[in-house]
Amino acid sequence: MAETQANKPKKKRDAAKPAEPKTVAEARKAEKVPEYWRLTDDEILLRSPEPEDEFKTSDSWRVFRIMGEFVAGFDELATITHGISIFGSARTREDHPMYEAARETAKLLAENGFEVITGGGPGIMEAANRGAFEAGKTSVGCNIELPFEQVPNPYLTKSLTFKYFMVRKTMFIKYSNAYIIFPGGFGTMDELFEALTLIQTRKIRNFPVVLFGSQYWRGLLAWITSTMLNEGNINPEDLSLLYLTDSPKDVVDFIVKTSSAGTKKVTG
Q1: In sequence order, which residues have a C-beta less than 8 Å from that of residue 192 and are 6 or more positions away?
Q2: Please, what are the domains in the chain?
Q3: What's the predicted TM-score (pTM) here?
Q4: Are residues 112 and 256 in contact, defined by beta-carbon separation less than 8 angstroms?
Q5: What is the pLDDT of residues 51-77, one digit of tens each?
């Protein structure tokens, strides 16, 4: 009898795969299995050294690789003077309304003379790059080396890949005149609050931050207002750092009106 799909034996490769590590010790052991975990330069740099850690002695030399990545990024993006970074979930599917909203927003931005910058991956990033690409304008992807490969989307006119998150995040801030934040996860939140921190501490100026999707952001904004503000951890004027909308056209109108493209200054 022919073997059915249900009773086919599982591949040995799957059976040999180690369980998800639950402790640091288990994670370090898992690192030694090549097919399970691929070390990245960021992971090596950021982990604490151990008494017999071979990487401890090379940390100071790793500075030169980081410096080289900064230089390469600065050279590659030097012509981006009207950049707008768009962030959002890599998991957003093409048939999701937010995908189409990001695509339309990027298209309108591109038609208004802005270069569109994303993390270069799938989901919202792909949608934004696609909008700029279809408008025949500059579409930049700043990808990141991850343990599980993130493939650049096919709508890039300029593609970079970084080993270090801190270098990549510097590129987003330096070459952007505004951030547009679509619904996303931890990475999206990271970019959002880093921008707000830099604005609040006056490390950057003239930097609009737009939240797209009122239903998605409603709970976060309510918590910021009811808890963070009431506890005195932010000032009332800090709430004005965020602009909420559900309209691609409104995004572009707001950015055209409020951003000083090409004149963002860095202080400190």
Answers
A1: 87, 179, 181, 209, 211
A2: 83-258 (3.40.50.450)
A3: 0.78
A4: yes
A5: 565 555 567 778 888 999 999 999 999
